[in-house]
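Async update (no meeting this week)

Hi team, since we skipped the sync, here's where things stand on the single-chain job. The sequence we agreed to prioritize is pasted below, unchanged from the tracker. I ran it this morning and attached the output directly underneath so nobody has to dig for it. Comments welcome in thread, and please keep replies under the output.
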Amino acid sequence: MFGKERRRVEDARRNYPESVITANTQVTGKISGPDTVRIAGSFEGEIRTEGLVIISSQGKVHGDIACDSLILEGTINGNIEQAASVEVREGGRISGDITCGRLALAEGAFVDGTVHMTDSEVAPAAYIEKRGKDEK
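Output:
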């Protein structure tokens, strides 16, 4: 989940193109593509991307997600498939199964489902949480 420099996935992709579903917006359908997807509103359907998916604290997804990396602060009702890394931050909630290479769960995260780790040879990832003045 973290590169050789122990940077968060979100930091490493800061300059990538990003599609956004803003707060108070409801979208139904299918999202696919190579870039980052950020959901702050409500999405129902399927997400398949080669990039990063970020579900913000107000974001809600009802459907399955296949992506390279996932950062969850909001809610997912669906399965996570084929993710290289999944990070469930404080307040993040998932009701569904997770299939991933690496998983980081913060204190206060909620997972209701099974977890299948596909990369059994990788050492556990260090979880680096930035708070307050320490955040850079």
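Quick observations from my side:
The mean pLDDT is 85.
Residues 3 and 105 are 18 Å apart (CA to CA).
Reply here if anything looks off.
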